Amino acid sequence: QIKFDNKKTNYEHNVALAWKLNKSFTPYVEVGNVAVRNNTDERQTRYRVGLQYHF
């Protein structure tokens, strides 16, 4: 099964930024480039925004 560039391999890029507000909360943003399907070379940009809680 061809995945990327006529080869059977694939890749994923992610860049994340997080900053600690206090002992409990860490907000973050992430941008990634992922495959759309396993059998094509189509790519899609993924955006994530979140809040991590530490206890």
From TrEMBL:
<dbReference type="GO" id="GO:0015288">
    <property type="term" value="F:porin activity"/>
</dbReference>
<dbReference type="Pfam" id="PF06178">
    <property type="entry name" value="KdgM"/>
</dbReference>
<dbReference type="InterPro" id="IPR009331">
    <property type="entry name" value="Oligogalacturonate-sp_porin"/>
</dbReference>
<dbReference type="GO" id="GO:0009279">
    <property type="term" value="C:cell outer membrane"/>
</dbReference>
<dbReference type="InterPro" id="IPR053713">
    <property type="entry name" value="Bact_OM_Channel_sf"/>
</dbReference>
<protein>
    <recommendedName>
        <fullName>Porin</fullName>
    </recommendedName>
</protein>
<keyword id="KW-0732">Signal</keyword>
<dbReference type="GO" id="GO:0015772">
    <property type="term" value="P:oligosaccharide transport"/>
</dbReference>
